[in-house]
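hiii, so i know i said id send this last week but things got crazy w the move. better late than never?? heres the sequnce for the chain we talked about at the cafe, plus the structure i predicted for it. fair warning i was half asleep when i ran it
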Amino acid sequence: MNYKAFLTEYWHPKGTCISKFFHEKALSYLHDSNEILTVQDWIEHFKTTAVDEKGELSENACDWHTTVDRIADLGNDNYMTITFHRSANWNGFVTSIFTIKDGLIAELHEYYSPCDDNIVPQWRTDLKDAERI
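okay and structure toks below
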């Protein structure tokens, strides 16, 4: 597997449905906001920022821009990306650690900087305790 191409496409999918990158039961851990998101939650997150009504990423859906600064192989199916995100609402770096199994993301851990101005939508604020780290 070409992990650099896979992760670059993840950050710049050009209309691809985001669910194609994840195992069906994958979990995403957003450590700064203390959240655990399922694939469906992650799709909902993208819908609030960059996905059209078909669930496909759309350049017209929002004004965010992502620059991939680094991709590293950490060994044992783990890969790290450091990305810079720019939008009207938030600018900052995200360090993401992916566990990739069978060519799909099985687990994702993300750390945001700065995190003090991270805007969390209401539906994510309402997550249950079981959906917290």
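btw The chain has one domain: 3-127. thought thatd interest u
miss u guys!!
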